[in-house]
Write a structure and sequence with these properties.
The structure holds two protein chains of two kinds. By secondary structure, chain A is an alpha+beta fold. Chain A folds into two domains: 221 residues, P-loop containing nucleotide triphosphate hydrolases (Rossmann fold, 3-Layer(aba) Sandwich), CATH 3.40.50; 126 residues, RNA polymerase II/Efflux pump adaptor protein, barrel-sandwich hybrid domain (OB fold (Dihydrolipoamide Acetyltransferase, E2P), Beta Barrel). In chain A, a hairpin with a 7-residue loop joins strand 17 and strand 18. Chain A starts with 7 loop residues before the first strand and ends with a strand. In chain B, strand 1 and strand 2 form a beta hairpin. In chain B, helix 4 crosses helix 9 and helix 9 runs antiparallel to helix 12. Chain B is flat and about 70 Å long. Chain B starts with a helix and ends with a helix. The chains are: A alpha+beta, B mainly alpha.
């Protein structure tokens, strides 16, 4: 058996450490060959456990893991053609950069001259040539990360598994290394699976974003889909950028329904084709924060806007290209408007001002 | 300290001295002074009845070094030391390895670790005596071997022999290997081992390329303990060999018994120098200070 492709399929994968509760609970997922996939979720959601099961450092309690068409459950990492980059890198502290990178070739029995040549080529690829003879402790965080990447990539894996690869770096370096990861992935043309808890990292990098909670997949899809069209309240709140409101259906008329909620003012929401809603059903809706417009009381609503929610400004944060305005629109949930900088400063608001929050009706989305 | 010693203020210097004073107060009377006394005695002459005449002579050293017995004793001591070191290292390494990498439950690991210290709940003498029912002519091992017909005559080499000496040493000293090796192994990040598995290393390769090099400081510390204890001991040799073997220390113990203090002191100084050489050798191969602060 030889694994040639890096497409991965998880079928009903479960993992339990204590035999009582499942850390990973029936995960089904397909990842295409050569995709950049990000698992994202709060700590303890099972994302790292999935990564370790794909790597072969943990066996699933139930289910199948298929890589390149072969069920790999029970196989050691080498036979899976996977390589893992560990959180905080787990470099061999007593070996030089060169020996760290050449280690996998050494235990594969490659002759010394050959493996050192291969390691040097890889060291050049990650631009560490001047540091080849240093020990890991003598390197900066970013350099250590590149050593870890090179050490994982030298075995020419079909799948590279990265466990929070950027979390040990400071902000500026993180953005820089993010690009480097993406570049490496394109160069190598292999599947990358990246575990993170940073939303920005996930949507900036991934072809496929997998949002997890409590051992289950909440939503999996392209970054833009997960961000702009979250399935449910959890994904909407976790990915951010959305205002989530809940209420009860008051009236259904044709292509839209009216949502009644605690605060005054009904909200018109377009109906999705498949949903069948009855009067009185409880439902969450989401509106992107950058779709919300703020109008002074008495001002005319922009065209296409039918909802108007009177609100008071609670706080204002200047964010550069937009201004974050926090409102008391709904009693329990956060309600935020991202107002473009120029629009905001054309008629600046102050904390305590009363405004009307509105948005184009067709942009409100009912959630599952 | 180094920062303060450069300070122009005498006050800061005083503070530095105060920091080290507890150590100085212990080391000077209990370590430096006795060594100086022995050093002095080794160049004095004796009247043969225990009286020492101050002076300076190297004749004591000449006597010790020219004696054929000295070389024989050193060879015997080195034999015991090397054998004991080998077995304690082998056993100690694998016990520590098992405790650190194969016992998943940390509570169980600590429990097993404590079991390793059980022999120390009783005195050295009792521990040695307790070998007699096992290794003696009518001991358990001989009885068992006779009963199964493997041998016809009871084995003499089991007790009161060099074998018995080494067994007693290994029994006593293995814990001195286990503790430091366990300590350095326990500090190996489990993810580093996993990274090696990920790279395709077998269990043996992980041990050879990762665990052994990363336990070097523990191995060196344990070796220093074992080597210095065995080289400085005469009691186990005396008891377990039944008087048949001797070590370097037994010789100058005899000298002390017959009031030959200067030659005993010269032997002691010589042994100290040899031991320092051995320890220096161990420290040359393993930079313990660097390994520990890493």
């Amino acid at each position: 058996m030889k694994i040639e492709r890096g497409d991965i399929e998880l079928a009903g994968v479960c993992k339990s450490f204590d035999g009582v509760s499942n850390v990973v609970d029936g995960v089904n997922l397909k990842i295409a060959d050569g995709a950049y996939c990000c698992f994202i979720g709060p700590s303890g959601c099972g994302k790292t456990t999935i990564l370790r099961m794909i790597a072969g450092h943990e066996d699933p309690t139930a289910g199948e893991i298929v890589i390149g068409g072969h069920n790999v459950v029970g196989l050691p990492p080498v036979q899976r053609r996977t390589a893992m980059m560990f959180q905080s890198y787990a470099l061999f502290p007593h070996l030089t950069v060169r020996d760290n990178i050449a280690f996998a070739l050494r235990v594969r029995g490659m002759a010394k001259a050959d493996r050192l040549r291969a390691a040097d080529a890889m060291i050049e690829k990650v631009r560490l040539t001047p540091f080849a003879d240093r020990l890991p402790a003598q390197l900066s965080g970013g350099q250590q990360q590149r050593v870890a990447l090179a050490r994982a990539a030298i075995t020419e894996p079909r799948v590279l598994l990265l466990d929070e690869p950027l979390s040990a770096l400071d902000e500026q370096l993180r953005v820089q290394m993010r690009q480097e990861l993406r570049r490496m992935q394109r160069d190598l043309g292999i599947t990358f699976i990246h575990v993170t808890h940073t939303q920005l990292e996930a949507i900036a990098l991934a072809d496929l974003v997998v949002v997890m909670d409590n051992g289950r997949i909440k939503q999996a899809g392209p970054a833009r889909e997960v961000y702009a069209q979250p399935h449910d309240r959890y994904v909407a709140e976790f990915m951010g950028g959305q205002n989530v409101l809940s209420g009860r259906v008051e009236k259904v008329n044709g292509a839209s329904f009216m949502l009644g909620q605690a605060a005054p003012g009904a909200i018109e929401v377009p109906l999705r084709a498949r949903s069948s809603l009855g009067i009185g059903d409880k439902i969450d809706i989401a509106i992107r924060r950058d779709d919300v417009a703020l109008v002074r009381p008495g001002g005319a609503l922009p065209t296409g806007c039918s909802t108007s929610l009177p609100s008071r400004v609670l706080a204002i944060e200047y964010q550069g290209y937009f201004v974050k305005v926090m409102l008391d629109t709904v009693p329990d949930d956060e309600f935020v408007a991202y107002v473009p900088e120029k629009t905001f400063f054309a008629d600046p608001l102050n904390v305590g001002d009363v405004v009307v929050a509105t948005w184009p009706t067709e942009l409100a989305r009912p959630l599952a | 300290m180094p920062m303060q010693s450069n300070s122009p203020l005498p006050r800061a210097n005083l503070a530095g001295w105060l920091y080290v004073s507890p150590l100085v107060l212990v080391l000077v009377p209990f370590f430096v002074a006795p060594i100086l006394v022995v050093l002095a005695a080794s160049v004095f002459t004796t009247d043969g009845f225990g009286g020492l005449t101050p002076g300076f002579t190297l004749s004591n050293y000449a006597e010790v070094l020219s004696s054929g017995l000295t070389l024989k004793l050193y060879l015997a001591t080195i034999k015991f030391t090397v054998l004991t070191w080998m077995f304690t290292l082998l056993i100690g390494f694998f016990v520590a390895y098992f405790l650190v990498f194969h016992v998943r439950n940390p509570l169980l690991a600590i429990g097993l670790f404590l079991i390793c210290t059980v022999p120390f709940w009783t005195s050295n003498i009792i521990r040695m005596i307790s070998w007699i029912p096992l290794l003696g002519k009518e001991g358990l091992i001989n009885d068992a071997l006779l009963a199964t017909g493997v041998i016809r005559q009871p084995l003499d080499v089991l007790l009161f022999s060099d074998l018995a000496v080494v067994i007693a040493y290994v029994h006593q000293l293995t814990i001195f290997m286990i503790v430091p090796i366990f300590n350095s192994m326990a500090r190996i990040d489990k993810r580093v081992i996993e990274a090696a598995v990920d790279a395709g290393a077998s269990r043996f390769e992980i041990m050879r390329h990762i665990v052994v090099p990363m336990s070097k400081s523990g191995i060196a510390l344990g070796s220093i303990f074992v080597v210095s204890i065995v080289m400085g001991d005469f009691f186990v040799v005396k008891v377990m060999s039944g008087g048949g073997s001797a070590s370097v220390v037994s010789a100058f113990y005899e000298d002390v018994g017959v009031l030959q203090y200067p030659t005993a002191a010269a032997s002691a100084v010589l042994l100290t120098l040899v031991l320092m050489g051995v320890v220096a050798l161990i420290l040359r191969t393993v930079d313990i200070r660097r390994e520990i602060t890493r």
